[in-house]
Amino acid sequence: MMLMRKLYKVNMLFGTYLCMAITVSIVIFMIAYIFFKSVPYFSWQLLTNSPSYLNDTIGVLPDILNTLYLTFTTLLFVLPMGVGAAIYLNEYATSPKLVKVIEYCIETLAGIPSIIFGLVGMLVFCQFFGLKTSLLAGSLTLVIMNLPTIIRTTQESLKTVPQGYREGAFGLGAAKWHVIRTVILPCCIEGIVTGCILSIGRMLGESAALLFTAGFAHTLNGYFEGMRSAGSTLTVALYVYAKEQGEFEVAFVIAAILLFMSLLINLLATFLARRVQKRMAS
Which stretches of 36-141 are assigned E, i.e. beta strand? Predict the structure, then answer.
């Protein structure tokens, strides 16, 4: 009997490590392959210029800026809404039936294909609200797409905070919102950051919904002007260069830029989360 348990334990550990090795190997292979294919075509001119059919030049600077504009604006809307909704569901809602209905709607929203969000965003934001094809319309569409991720990750993080923390703070005479702000949120800031990172990954990788709402214009604009006009993000530009124009060298460069931006934003989010956690704890 003991021998069977040891064999079972060894097999389970072997299977776990094997799955981990396969996953890590696939990720490393993809990153290495993309950088290997893109490094020969990296140039300062490609990164700092705008594309021009008259001058026969290719540049991705407008696409990089549009991606940053879109990501920043989406986070500006989705973080307060998602975290606020999670706090309500976990801390304020008193009706279990209402909570179940809201959670069911959130899970349903998370399972809708992105192309449906693009069509709805085009009809609602671009036409009904008169935003036309613009980065703002694309950003609002991404807000709806990423709300379930922020809400669910924040809600699960709030559930991990021990009930004794709440009871101790209430026993000292603290108000409910003060307890949430100074006791509960600092304990689950890492979960909020996890949801933020997952949402950023989806924002950077989204293309189908943005084709209908943000457009694919390679125009270099400032932030406020860019949000009111159509613009191509890096993923949309990757699709256009690879599928429509056959410029696979530029597509691999854009893919490498997306990987670098994703890593940089994730590190920045983790750093800011630690600073916020220390400040809120003090």
Answer: none
Q: How many residues does the chain have?
A: 282
Distance CA 192, CA 149 (A): 10
How confident is the model over 135-160, as pLDDT tens digits?
999 999 999 999 999 998 888 888 88
Torsion of CA 268, 273, 278, 282, to 10 degrees: 130
| 131, 137 contact by CB (below 8 A) | yes
* R_g (Cα) of the chain, nearest Å: 23
pTM for this entry: 0.86
Nearest to 193 by CA among 140, 137, 154, 235: 154
H-assigned helices in 134-247: 135-159, 163-171, 176-179, 185-187, 189-205, 208-213, 223-228, 234-239
> Please, which residues have CB within 8 angstroms of residue 163's CB and are 6 or more apart in sequence?
none
Alpha-carbon gap, residue 268 to 282, rounded angstroms: 21
**% of the chain with per-residue pLDDT over 90:** 22
Of the pLDDT bands very low, low, confident and very high (cuts 50, 70, 90), residue 281 is: low
Structure tokens at 275: 């600073």
Q: Rounded to the nearest 5°, which phi and psi values hold at 49?
A: -110, 165
- At 207-224, the pLDDT tens digits run 888 888 988 888 878 888
